[in-house]
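G.,

No rush on this.
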Amino acid sequence: MNSMPVAVNRKRLPKRKQGVFYTPTELFDKYIYPEISDILWDYTWVDLFCGRGDLIIPLLLHIECQERTAFFADHIRCFDVSPMALKELAKRLREIGITDEDLIKKNLIQTDTLIRFPEFEHDFPLFHITNPPYLYKGFIPKTKETSELLRYFRGEREPLQDLYQVALFNDVKAGLQRMIYVIPANFLYGDAVSNYIRGIVLKHYRLRKVVVFERKIFQDTDINVCICSFVRKSVPDERPQVISAIKVTWQGEKIRAYVLSKKYKWRAGSEFYEIVSKMRARQPLNVKLYLTRKDIERHPGDYEVTVLDVNNYKPIKIHVSKALAERIRKNILFLKTLDTGSIEGRAGLYRHRDVFGVEGLLVTRAFTYRTHPIQVFFEDDIEPEEQIFVEMWFNSLLEILRARLDSDFMTTYRQTTRHYTRKYLGLKQAILIMETCPLKDLRPEIRAWIKDSIRKGDHEAVKRWIQEIINEKVSEISGELLKGNNYNTQTTISDFLSNTRRLISGKDYTFT
């Protein structure tokens, strides 16, 4: 098949700007081959983004030398937009004993498979095994070189958010029965960025196996990825799926169990939303996030306030009305959404006077950024000691949920190290946690005891009281969720149990 004209510009883009990252061979041998070893001769194995063949060459190496050419002829089809990548793959095929040039030319096809699923002859059912390009839609318009890639998101694909999602969407439309994808872990854990594609894929496919990597896999990027094995359902449905996943970190491997449901947009780690919704206070706190330049312009005055310019991390002095000055000063907390690489730098609520030595935090540019420190404004009249109680409650609940749910409700942020996996707490999640704080529900005598204890500096007594309440409540809710998971998905649950037994057989896994 000839190269399509629309592919010309993409071929010339640097690999990193295409979102192309080559797959380590050991990843295939350890986590993919055991899944397919018994069915190699039952399918035509196709890789629509084959690159140098990092998923195809390891597969062929598991075929006996004398049978390799015949297997390649009948069971392998490779596609890529890059002629250089296909040239490298052809060279590797010759090195492992496949030397029929006509056959290589026939089975290695240059075309742009992001445009559409290609048509080609095959004698066996298709099994797509691939590591597609990853490139977030929000990044694409930022450079002239990548902006043309927006054409992949036209028409019915406009709601998609990444190139890998375009690949998945094409496979769903083509009706493939089996797929194994190496894709960003945000497919499982992402919120707005992945809700749409999960809804499409998981309506038609069951996740048979998942491996999540919270460690660096690719040489050229720090993106955390997962391996997802998909099996097409006989009839589309939207019932919850119970899945088991191997989680690979710098410290080793463990198994996590997830319930993916439409109620929570099929997102892994949805237990978080179940817990915080059941813990929501009867009278939840009403909060507003961010102090912006527009707030300053709307409230001019002569009252001087020292704030941190969060866009430049420099203290500056602003002049505002008396009312706004008082509002800034009396709200003493800020939200830190991003872990900074150590236990001491975890996401949570902190006091900006203690951390930055300022009275408030100001966004000086037009756009707010979720990873900057964000001042929290309470719409209720809450005294400083009570705000410290909110801080204690928020951080205690967040840490308990991180431990119980292995931080799965948070997004892994950039590079992880051998000692620590950095996580990002979404603003929606932060608000939900704040809304669990029962400050306004407390009896007056309890509220008075809290304020008196904090004024006297006896923070530990308040922390112990908070942790006892939270631990008891979270344990109670978790028990209810386990009893209440009557999802009428017996086939899925049976597969989950058998997969778990198989995964942990003979291995020293931690089951969480």
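When you get to it, here's the other one too:
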Amino acid sequence: MDAGQTPPPGKFAATVKVEPKGQVVIPKAARDLFDIKSGDTLLLLADADQGIALMRQELLDQIVASAMPGQPPEARPEGETQ
């Protein structure tokens, strides 16, 4: 993608700087794209060969719930039904 070019819908690319405490700021456009709000829990996945990824904790909860369809309702993520 050339400088100044707008990414296609549903895509985002940017550079961020790591602060002294290891923190990075997720750019607003990326937060808006994924509806990330202050206080949300994100899961950080890291692989030495493939890099780092962030995903919503709720997405992982849904994946786990769908992989275990027989689990009791109290063990399912909030709002999840069988």
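The first strand starts at residue 42 and ends at 47. The chain has a mean pLDDT of 83.

Enjoy the weekend,
O.
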